[in-house]
Fold these 2 entries.
Entry 1:
Amino acid sequence: MSISTKSLGLHLGLLAVLFVLQFVLPAYHHGNIARIMVLASYAIGFNILFGYTGLLSLGHALFFAAGMYGMGLVVNQFGLPPFSALLVGLLVGGLVALALGLLALRTEGVAFMIVTLMFAQAGYLTVLYFGEYTRGDEGFVIQQAERVMWGIDLSDPTNRYFAALVIFGVSLLVTLKLVQTPFGKVLIAIRENEERARMLGYDVFLHKLAAVVLSGVISAFAGASYGLLFGYVGASFASVQYSIFPLLWVLLGGAGTVLGPFVGTLFMFYLIDLSSGITSAYMLIAGVTLVALTLFAPQGFVGELRKRVWRWLP
Amino acid sequence: MSLLSTRGLSKHFAGLTAVNDVDFDLPEGQIRALIGPNGAGKTTFVSMLCGRVELSSGVVMFEGRDISVLPAHKRIGLGLAYTFQITSVFGNLSVAENVALAARRRVKGAMVAQVVTEALGKVGLADRMEQNAADLSYGHQRLLEIAMGLAQAPKLLILDEPTQGLADSEISDFKALIRDLANSTTILLIEHNMNVVMELADFITVLDFGQVLAEGTPQDIRANAAVQAAYLGTV
């Protein structure tokens, strides 16, 4: 069996397991997994830039929120149907990413982190500033009636679960395909050795810009979907916390692996969920676990798996 | 006509003149060695040729075209290739993928695999295609670098100290490889190993303190008193 068949099998296998889980999970976990799948799509978008291209952005909440508000505002203000609104969210996310990429990619390393962080903060403040439309911190609800797409009510838990699975599946398979294309290989080459990639004749700036836009669009897709599936659009999703989350998820799961973002999101979600059931100082438990993981599995779960067992993991 | 030439090429780093007013002509098909003591400006000079370092003044011409202000990736597109002084491969990618990245700038589709196999065959790494480049020995990584250069099928291949750190047996393989390569491409070689230089080069340029100290055939250079004083005598 060739490597690409094996990896396709593995990823389709995960999607199949998630499909079956819908029928067996109790309601509480059922809702959690739906949420995790959408957030994991966000992490997948982040991972394209961080894990595969080697660019650490601390401002991805800007893209997540751009998608979410792009979708939410046209539903709320103009009553656009969900699917068109979703596309608007993607478009807004892509344009914001293009603009940010053109500016931020003039910098490198730490400066890139700071510039992306600052732009995301500017985005957050913009949401607050236009409180008349965005309702600021309080946010706004997308009514059930506005969440019916092609006759499917996305507020229904089962529909929502399947919609989340589709969103996650699309993000996962797009990334899986991407990292096997020549374009994806150039991104990895830039991560590994930017100067060498340039001296092979690749336009490094253009490739990075494309990576920022692609990463931004997938993040915006996740943000718009999140708003649509869970019916709420709020400024907290634009805050710095939501820029740090995908970094944590990806680091835990394994940067530069296709499955890592999902594994990391799943782990972090349940780590907080379970530890908060034990003690009110749950962040302490989460913190200690994170430190231990960084010490003993610095490449994340899937990264370590690849290093030790399955060398072929994409 | 020269394949590559420079006129008045200079590089200043905040008060330090690394390369000073160099006129240089490299005819097509030649193996040219660039030698000189440490700090003579060899790497800076070739870095200006391929666009890694911006020039301070002067002109670089390639096939009669002024490429002085072209970005590096465009110069590579015109047919220059550069292999790094410090081994510089994509560690977490397979050996084959390293070469494929070089090949895909030139060929597409099924041709890529063919070029990769051919290039790796020439340097003797065909049996290590699926290994991670980072797992190769140092000598093999240097050969991989050269295979990447081959896959580009450049008009001008610039090799920056390719034999550094190679064992004697690997060096003789390397010499055979370069001789074979010289039939199809022009080569500019920065090299410290005088045996390699004297055996391979058709013509030698000696840099010292950023300036051309002497140029000539290996015999001329060997006999040149100024070169001996500056360089050869200290070996």
Entry 2:
Amino acid sequence: MTRSEIRIAGAGGQGVVTAGRILAEAAILSGSNATHNQVYGPQSRGGASRSDVVIAGDEIGFPLADEIDLLIALSSEAFEKYRPEIVDGGRVIVDSRCAPEADDDNTSDFAVVDTARAVSGGQLVTGVVALGVLQAYAGLVDADALGEAVAARVPAKHRAMNLEALRAGRELVSGAIP
Amino acid sequence: MADVKTYLREWAMPHVLCPGCAHGIVMRGFLDAIDQLQIDQDKVAVVAGIGCSSRIVGYIDFCTLHGTHGRAPAFATGLKLARPDLHVMVITGDGDGLAIGGNHLIHAARRNIDMTVMLLNNSIYGMTGGQAAPTTPAGAVASTTPAGNTEPNFDACKLMIGAGASFVARVLAANPIEMSKVIADGVRHPGFSFIEIISDCPEYYGRYNKVGGGAEMLTWMARRDAGVAVPLSEKKFVEHVPSSPVPTGLTTGVLERDIRPVFTGVRKQEPQ
Amino acid sequence: MSEAQLIQGNEACARGALAAGCNFYGGYPITPSSEIAEHMVRMLPDAGGVFVQMEDEIASLAAVIGASLAGSKAMTATSGPGFSLMQEHIGFAVMAEVPCVVVNVMRGGPSTGLPTSPSQGDVMQARWGTHGDHPAIVLAPSSVGEVFDLTVRAFNLAERFRTPVILLYDEVIGHTRESVQLPEKVEIVDRVRPDGDAADFLPKAADATGVPPLPAFGDGYRFHVTGLSHDERGFPTDDGHVAGALLDRIHTKVSDYEDEITAAETFMLDDAEVALFAYGIVGRSAREAVLRSRDAGIKAGLIRPTTLWPFPSQQVAAAAAQVDKVIVAEMNLGQMIGEVERATAGQAEVVGHMRADGEPITPSELVGVVSAGGGGGH
């Protein structure tokens, strides 16, 4: 596969960094190369958070996102800030609450945050729901590999809930595309 | 008792210390303590910082590390954690140990690393030419306090007790037999031991404050020894009258002794 | 080789250290290097080593030097503010010839600067940070895999030359996770220890290699270690001839082996008309920019040093002889460019592309620089 750059961005506490790491691990399990990088501020909780993943079939030159192919924006701030960095022909997955009013061919909105809340009662699995959306919407990694990576990365006591979040994310896409 | 020359690097003599300086008496007292303890000379590591007292390590025949100003306890920490079989000792001065190196000293004490720190307090910076130290008494003259020191001074032992040192003692260079005994006691103590050794600096402190040469300073020191006759709970620390250039009394002897867990680094614990 | 796994640069550093035989770590927390300590404290005890968190960076390197004199392979890791504090003991380790490894994960400076953002602002400090004339060996990896390899190399060079070795990489390299396959076994170099009679031991007498054997404290050789100028007995001296000879030997023991120490990767230089000079994360951007520039019809090439010091002058001079222009790209306001100019010696035009705002220099940015003919910056 050719190089794909994915940016997952949102608010601290949504599990954005972990989601990026899981995506990269799933890519490796799928037989690709991957890099993961996080940008963070001084706060351990709250504030903006961002995770960049590069996936490629062969050696990865520059390990950071440079021309973003796919943006997953889980907050309005993230959407506004990173939308201009999308490469021509790139796509955006945005949380329904932050979706722009005007239609945009490249932008699809899904109820990621609400689904995460329904699954977990909070926002902790937001990133994993987003991964489910991403996999069903864009492929990039094997569905089984993604499930395996989620199961391996999250704490055992939260495993079932996270796998449920992943499934719920996928269904957001299959429900939206008849 | 072995010939003290067994423990000396005679080839490194003559030494750099001034006539009348009591640091030589301290060196001898330290070597006597080592001899009393009968520990393997090859397993003794002595670490020093920078200053007159720290130069002692050049003349004693052990593994010796003459490090950087104030950092001896930190070098010694690495040595001891890496080689627990070594007997690690530190020779430092009042400027070295209490000013630039104060942070390292309090943390070595807090961790309760098994080492012995001997702090030779001559109340002044000798090697750099008689500047005021954190131990210079209020009112005393130094090259940087020509009108008399207007800062209060540290009580090294009180500081070390506060930092958690499990063995704290004060001895006088003027009382070398007791000094050797207390040093040996400190080395035997399992954990961090701190011994403040009241020494002198006739060349600067004595001259600037007109308190005489080496012999006079030692005599004067011994006369001010308040001893350890009172129970530990009632012990008084060094007190001074602000208008006087010197402390009026010195509490000597073992001021703190407690058995506490010894820090050996984060490592795989050997089966007991 | 192990299976491919997603590993962060700072974790690769810790794993490289263990592979190299590191058995002592002393450090102080600082962003963006703290993960190295966090990995070391988890792995070192089981490997038979010792970990200690010291009270500051001055003490950290002091403890490392103490441990090394006790026979350990010892390291510390820090970032700019801590690296400033460590300069005192880098000088001590040079003078006393104590092997040790210092890792500096560079963040934006000066002062507290940009704690979570990358920079290459410490490359000159790594060379000249401590006072006095001194040699420096400084390695600069560009990837997570290279962090592992160069950490091993840093230990080997430190042991071989009895000198501190600095591993210098930026926050991006430290925090990026990449899929890497780590080698199961690496080549390990150990310091030479004396084997003669302890009574005749001269701790600072070197043979033709210029590197004296180093026993461990407690192993039967009683010797003196000092940061003062000293003679072959290790004893302080102010004799100018002796002090000068010591300084000379401390330099030549490294400079005589520069050919073996310096290393630089070249990429597509053979027919290049313009060469990019870049290291660390910028080396990755530059390689990508070379490929994209060639797609656009510009004959670009790359020289990427993995040793910053000693500076790979011969490699740079050879590259400069082939091209019309050298573009130096670095995440500072112009530091290594001076060395490139000196090594190039007028053979090619040297221009810089500098950036010190906490953002990494990207491939797109460099493609623009190459197509515009170089120069500029933010």
